[in-house]
Amino acid sequence: MSKPASYPPLTLPDGRHIALGDSPLIMGIVNVTPDSFSDGGLFAEANAAIAQGERLAAEGAAIVDVGGESTRPGHSRLDAGHELARIMPVIGPLAGRIAAPISVDTYKAEVADAALKAGAQIVNDVWACRRDPAIAGVAARAGAPMVLMHNRDTIDASLDMLDEVRRFLEASAALAMAAGVARTQIVIDPGIGFGKTPEQNLTLIRRLDRLVELGFPVLLGASRKSTLGLVTGRKIAAERVAASVAAHLYGALQGAAIIRVHDVPPHVDALKVWSAIGAAP
Asked: CB of 227 within 8 A of CB of 192?
């Protein structure tokens, strides 16, 4: 059975290391937003978000991803001030309560800088240095790993999306490295559900191995996405847990090093079985 490729560990600003390989790591999602597609409003209040972050870490998340701006289709963009007002009351207290490193889900340099100073350890940029190129310098100066995600403002069904994603992420990685981010500190993400048709999303999961070929650890985030709802007929995002596990296990077989999920326990169990089967004589 295939397993994720081995990579050098990611080095965090506080000197700790995150080992990658053997089995995908789980990144748990905390949306400090009123309008997330999946759990909008559940964790918009700081105490609820902190409690959710603690819960995800206790359940087995190796990384806890905190975001203050919804990136669902049709979302309203926030300025940095409003985004910071949502996440700053969460990141500092949460960093003091969990051992798992916190990643900040933002594309704004100002937000990333404040979050890293408050205790976040990783920058998860959903625009891969394209919206605010200064964000790469922020990560470099802090010594923080970066997740670079492919994104598009519009959907074009005629695109060879695999080729588009490869070229986009290679160029974004070059931007990050030019700003001082070490190659070994970069993770790439195909951006399932961002500016893509359902067919393109499925193709990217099926051919995730072609992204692994680029030499960077790959993060896959298909959790509760609408494409899975179209396949299963599940219109309610929270009912797509089994579909999410299936998509992420397929991605693991293609070499995903990290999976970004809303529902940690079923993914922990699935990966335990996946690993046990792979280790069986």
From this structure: yes
- Catalytic annotation, residues: 225, 260
Q: Copy the structure tokens of residue 258.
A: 């990290």
- Concatenating the DSSP letter of every residue in 55-84 gives HHHHHT-SEEEEESS--STTPPP--HHHHH
One-letter-per-residue 3-state SS of 177-198: HHCCCCHHHEEEECCCCCCCCH
29: left (phi over 0), alpha (psi -120 to 50) or beta: beta
Q: How confident is the model at residue 171 (pLDDT cuts 50, 70, 90)?
A: very high
Write out pLDDT tens, residues 100-150. Answer: 999 999 999 999 999 999 999 999 999 999 999 999 999 999 999 999 999
Predicted local distance difference test score (pLDDT) of residue 22: 80
